[in-house]
Amino acid sequence: MTESVVTGASSGTLPDLMGITITELTPQRVVGTMPVKGNTQPFGLLHGGASCVLAESLGSLGASAHAAELFGGVALGVDISATHHRSARSGIVTGVATPLHLGRSIASYEIVITDESGARICTARLTCTLRKIDMPPQA
Predict the structure, then answer these.
(1) In this structure, are residues 111 and 123 in contact, taking their beta carbons and an 8 Å threshold?
(2) Tens digit of each residue's pLDDT (9 = 90 or more) over 18-74
(3) By three-state DSSP, how is residue 67 classified?
């Protein structure tokens, strides 16, 4: 698995288009940031779907890192739920994903998204299935 696949930094991917930056990546903890600007709904608030994209990106990366360590595998998201506690209008939000369960076929993460003041914006839970798949060669 290439570094760009593990970090989700491949050009043109959804995390790239949304401005998501990964700052820490281990199976035990994944941290990333996302700008509010460009990820808002028509009323100027952070879009709930954008929070879910950040959450799934972080949790999937942690689960993929776990699967890679176990058997050279990857993770595929199968379930996500999110509670949106408050809104953000500007700045950067930060997500921190920590595992709830790291198994041989399933990994689940809790992802907490906060604004720049540390106020909780969203709490999400992601479950991924772990699979061994052949990745196409990167150009």
Answers:
(1) yes
(2) 999 999 999 999 999 999 999 999 999 999 999 999 999 999 999 999 999 999 999
(3) helix
| pLDDT band, very low/low/confident/very high, at 3 (cuts 50, 70, 90) | very low
Q: What percent of the chain has pLDDT over 70?
A: 89
How far does CA 44 lie from the centroid of its chain? 22
Find where tokens 């999400």 sit.
Answer: 124
Q: Provide the token pair at 38.
A: 């460009």
Beta bridge partners of 83: 123
| Distance (Å, whole) CA 60 – CA 68 | 12
Which residues are identified as catalytic? 56
Long-range contact set of residues 33-40: C-beta below 8 Å, sequence gap at least 24:
33/92, 33/93, 33/94, 33/95, 34/92, 34/93, 34/95, 35/91, 35/92, 36/88, 36/89, 36/90, 36/91, 36/92, 36/93, 37/90, 40/89
Selected from 3.30.1050.10, 3.40.50.2000, 3.10.129.10, 3.40.640.10, the CATH number assigned to the domain covering 3-131 reads 3.10.129.10
